[in-house]
Structure prediction request, 1019 residues.
Amino acid sequence: MNQDENNPETQGKISAELEARMTAWVAGEASPEETAELERLAAERPELADLKRRLEAVNKLLAESVRPDSEPLRLAKDRRAELMRTLRAPSNPAADPASDAPLFPSLAALRRRQTVERRWILAAAACLTCGLFLSVVVRSRYEAGSRAKAREWLVEGRAAPATQDSLKEAESQPSNEVAIQLPVETQVEAPQANPPAAYAKAASARAPVADTRTAPVFDFSQIGTGAVAPSLAAQERDAREQVAEASPHLGGTAASDRISRAVGNIGALAGVSGEPTVLPPVMADASQDKGSYRANSTLAGTRMRTDLKDVSSAISVVSAQFLDDVGGGNHEAPPAAPGADLRSQYAAEKAGKSLAAGAAGGGIPGGSDAEVNAPRQAAIGAPGGAVAETSASKEPVSTFSLHVSDVSFRLAQAALARGEMPDPDRIRPEEFYNAFRYGDPAPSMAEKISCRTEQSADPTMQQRNLLRIAMTVPATGRGAAEPLRLTVLLDTSGSMEREDRASAVRKAMQVLVSLLGRDDRVTLVGFARQPRLLADQVPGDRAGALLDIIAHTPAQGGTNIEEAIKLGGELALRQFATGAQNRIVLLTDGAANLGDADPAHLAARVEALRQRGLSFDACGVGTNGIDDSDLEALTRKGSGRYYVLDTPEAADAGFARQLAGALRPAAENVKVQVRFNAARVGNYRLIGFERHRLRTEDFRDDKVGAAALAAGEAAVALYEVEALPQGEGELGEVYVRFRDTAAGAMVERSWTLPYDPYVPAFDRATPTMQLAGTAAFLAEKLRGGARAESIRLAQLAPVVNALRSHYAQETRVQELAAMYERMRRMRME
Amino acid sequence: MFEGAPARSTAASNHAAARVEVMKLNPQSIAELFESEESALLHFAIGIVRQRMVAEELVQEAFLRLHRIWGQVDNPRGWLYRSIRNLALNHLRDRPRETQLDEERAAQDQSLPRDLLGRSEAIGTVRMLLAEMPEEDRNLIRLKYLENLKYLEISRRTGLSVGNVGFRLHHLLKGLQDGLQRAGIEGSQG
Prediction:
């Protein structure tokens, strides 16, 4: 609820009395008249409808929770028997010297860690005692101490009252230290009548920001001295009131709580004042900052709340409501057993959805794409219509945005690894076969782009050939000379507090920061219920300071992506520089639940920004509960990329490469057009790219946005083509058109697609052809529908084995082979 | 018998105790507690770590730990739920990525559908929060949600006024919702 978190304008106040009436209503206690009255109110006030939905959710959960499980689970027999023996034995820890010894070998490691931690706690406790007399520098270590202590209790799980007291004691010490990290709090708690001259001088040199919701920015140069006091002294009284109103339930004494209040209140303060907030210049000097936070590099260091017992956990209950919120479809529990039934069910849902999407949407999931997708191309993306071929004589031209991503592949791989069937709606074949590096020859710098095509027989369909078209851009993107103006929108909502997400974000930001140079500028916005400016136009070589800010920004509250994009857009335009890469990167776990979360509206917003020269990337954190199709749709509107950050390792490997690539695109607005020769080609079908298809005339319309390719990156498109042996001429021509970021000019090139009367069989084709084909077939199989029926997994076995040995060093290919095995085991065949 | 429950609710408590598992009165022994919570805790752990084998290990570990300090813990059930959750999250933190070996295990778990897992975590969290509630509050929840009694009937059994029942249930729901939200279960989020 976090009603403390400012902003009455988006969250109408609901009185306690009304809340109680709503509860009674949801609990089925309201009289008919009362029901009618409340229904009327709920219809008038969206926040009431929202409250009702939340209450109903809790109500339902409660009803399920108090009942015994319908399918009781038991431990494995042996384990159970052994445990019962131990439990039945008398427990007397004092007399049992072996009680600390590992009971089971598998747990020994855990115990050892505990012992180490205990030692650390003792050291920290000693430190704590001395700390009363020591300097600020020493104090900063307390935090590490108290966090470690909290972690100890977390591991022990004890909730003894003594714990709380000692935590309180630990917390009560570092109050100065909190003020140091967050100078603004000094202002709130101990307002100064005269802001330091340095600040005033700095402030006078700034242009005001029109957006009054913007919070004051930290002056990095002052971090560590605690001397900053924003010139808000006049609003001191308001600040105090805000503090008094601040949430009583957010974690008691935790230092983070105070920080969050301080931040929240400064945010509110700016709102209350109604005057433009003056932003101090950012002199990001990380040198003073380095090493002052002992806990930075520990896992605990990425968290703000020392109340570690409340580590967040997975979103999953959400599904229904969350999908509802973001305008998703009907995702009722999919049946446990995968198979034809499941697929047909999804097909049915898909059909229903596309009906709703209406004629303009053309049956392609996601109504927001409506205007991009040509109605006449619609049949290709229609439900079950992934099968539908296009006749070259009727429609010889196939145009699409060459969008490279591997998200769908990775989500599907993660799902299969968990033993689940991936959601067929989220399977995008082009993201499967573009998940691999094919090693296609790179062009020279002068060539700008190269194209390689190859063919083989299609093993799953009579009289069809597979046609692989690979576009590669030069390896050294000259875009590197181009400075970057980056605006990072970081989701700081409650769900981002989860340890795995927090560390993934931290890692991602480290990678990002390491990629920045002196001429680059980064603006950091944190957003939950409200967006807040955390850092403004930090020079790239000093961006390390951002990591400290992120580490000390609490995660709590809802997710209001709309407001974040609004503020992010304004700030990005403020630091906009012609001749620079101007980008916004959104990092979120995707659960947009506040504000206008309508994907179509968000997409319109992003598109408006793109037209002003701002690209938009999104990064989904965690693979659970992310509505990736919506985020992906946003990036499509913003000529950007969509990434998934599921583990800290992903930030290191894939994300680093991809982000580096996206931030330095060598080719932007890349569109491909294939013109088939109707005299040679009967039917054809582009595998995947359903959401990236364009109208024929869009190809040369440079206002229509399309994907970007990074330096050295290759993108692949795969067609199924019916080559007529009795026909004449070549298969056709392939055109590519893009903006060369180095020259800033549009480039268009074309190649001939030759007709080969002797195409090799699939199992004798080149490894690259086999790899692309296999990935596409697995995607089609997972996606289901009529085309999947014709793909026999068993038939692919020799090719998969060949790939496995040919690409022995390629993890991705090995993963693909593992997916294949898993799919076969999961009774798909 | 519900420890610390007011006398007026005793009759009601006895009435339901026989067929209630998850909200059963405080057990006399750890073995009894194990019998009554085994399934719920396993569901909870699987909901978080998503692997049956790991979940079993965690449940076993929690009980072994509890066994060693049995008698010193005020609220063993609440302690167990917290421990399971912390152990499970530690597991996720320490082993964020599945290794080859785990994949084999995961493959065995394919019988567990995804939505059920998320649901399991949410339900487990609610049970954890319930276990940490004062007995009197838990009793109200039980009367309302397990026995599906109307406010009027609850009022008759507990001696609270109807308005008071509504008010308290409302506050309990709100508290639960806050707790869920803090636990990152977003179905409850505002």
